[in-house]
Amino acid sequence: MSTNFIGPRIKALREERKLSQEDLAHLFGFKDRQTVSAIETGDRRVTAEELVIAVEKLGASLDYFTDPFLLVGEGRFSWRQTNVGPQRLNAYERSAGRWIAAFRVIAPQVGRASPLLRRALGMNKYSRFEDAMDAGERFAAEFELGNVPATRLAEVMERKLGILVLMVDAFDGISGAACRLPELDVVLINRHEVVGRRNFDLAHELFHILTWDAMPPEHSEEARETGGNRVEQLANNFASAVLMPVSVLDRFGDWLAIPEGELPARLNAAAEALAVTASALKWRLVALERLKPAAARSLPDAALRNNGRDVAPAVSPPLFSKPFIEVIALAIDQGRVSARRAAALVDLSVDDLGDLFTTHGVSSPLDL
Known about the structure:
alpha/beta; 434 Repressor (Amino-terminal Domain); 18 helices
């Protein structure tokens, strides 16, 4: 029996039960903990008899160990959140894990396997903030993100880097997440956040994906555009440069020459044009020495909130993403998964799944 995901799931359950490898070796009747270690790392297969013991002794269902549409013990998440407790966050992580696991299993079956090689930034936690900004500038230029980088970023991440980007329904307080699997990188974004914050979260999580091996992020971080630990500050500097490269900001003139009374309106207008938040733009200009820190601090937050609008627009992007929905459609069309099963995997009714195909412009395999 393959241990591709059984081993990590045994490890996850052992850690949840606060058992040592020696404890597990005793339960299974192994002579030493090295056998448990080999199972958990995938170096040793699990026999059918051992799987029965795992179900009985660890109190988990057989599906927990064998269902490929679960993500347990394999993926590492890093969440951007505000005042979300660990229990609630972990519950949402389990739901998100089902969507990611579904894509991981189905995509290779329909000819959409992840790239063989991963891209990475040559940075570590000792890199300078200027290095992160330079990397963001180069990313925007090399991938030709254009005059409004935010509008093409998700497409570039999915089509050119092989990073799955999912716009999701998340409860208040969750901004997004990066997820690293052995064979897949994923970014989740709360589609109900304001557009500027969504775009900043996307670029921020891109940094974590591109630097995961050199500086793995924390499981949970506070969602903000400035501050945080050094890795988060590097990610923020990179994100700001990707979304607001110097060549693009130059189109808006000399910020130092703008009278202080006109600054809020000019910041709001430029931020709106770039699909970023006025606050992020303000601190990006400070970092580039194109706006004096004192002038930035003097601006009232209320004047920049929602880029100067009384109410933030309620328009949200479609659920998930077109590449994700294309994979689901191909799997149904090829008979690899039933429509009912596919809908259940993404927590939708069959009718709602059919509507989502239409929304993304994907030919529907459903006969509705």
